[in-house]
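Quick one, T. Sequence first:
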Amino acid sequence: MKYKVVTHKTGQEILYNYGLGASSQSILGAHLGVSKRGYDYPTDSSDFMRCLGVVIAFDIDINIMKDFSYIWNRIIKDWDKLATLGLDGDMEGINLLLIVVLDTPKTSLEAVEEVNFICAMNRAPESCETKINLIKNKYKGDETK
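Structure tokens:
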């Protein structure tokens, strides 16, 4: 089995090649505690590589993004697979895995998580309870939706 040595320089090289984008800035902002802008997430291999570069270069635990959105939670579950694909240069593999992650319909729990996140961001605090109740009623008795 072939192993890759991953260092801060690896992350810096990835950042040099891919730059920063909205999703990687979300990770860096969460890490630095200067931004609640965690709703941007990678949607393709280039976006993911920018995120991977930030995580490696700054030694960030990706779990810092855990409560930002249900999409981030899904990405975190597959982070190791995505990172391995990225370090192996398999951009098509990243894209295919991200399609599965992004296109899977929301579960009822994910829908509630999304409303809770929006409420936490103070976008619509007055209507949060109503929205959560509507979601619970929509998915009542079926946690797989």
